[in-house]
Write a structure and sequence with these properties.
Elements lengths: L2 H20 L9 H7 L11 H32 L1 H6 L1
Helix pairs in contact: 1-3
Length: 89
């Protein structure tokens, strides 16, 4: 079984529990998943399906990881190549 399948199954299980926990609740939570669960399409008024939620969470996890890594690397590189740091060392 590939790691993508394992992540999808784990997220599907987690989302199933979260959706069940929040069903019938008018205001979910203010975290990112809660906001996505409450979001509605402006034209149709429909919310995201569990599959759409799963895919969006995967996108945030994977794309967010890449962005965080790149930003951290760039900030570290900028910090160590700045004149102030070189003079202090």
């Amino acid at each position: 079984m590939s790691s993508v399948v394992i992540v999808r199954q784990s997220l599907a299980c987690f989302l199933g529990h979260r959706v069940a926990l929040c069903s019938g609740v008018e205001q979910v939570t203010s975290d990112m998943l809660g906001l996505m669960m409450m979001a509605e399409d402006a034209e149709t008024g429909k919310g995201m399906s569990n599959e759409e939620l799963r895919d969006q969470v995967m996108t945030l996890m994977l794309a967010g990881h890449e962005v965080s890594t790149v930003i951290t690397s760039q900030l570290t590189q900028m910090r160590w190549t700045s004149c102030d740091v070189l003079v202090d060392c």
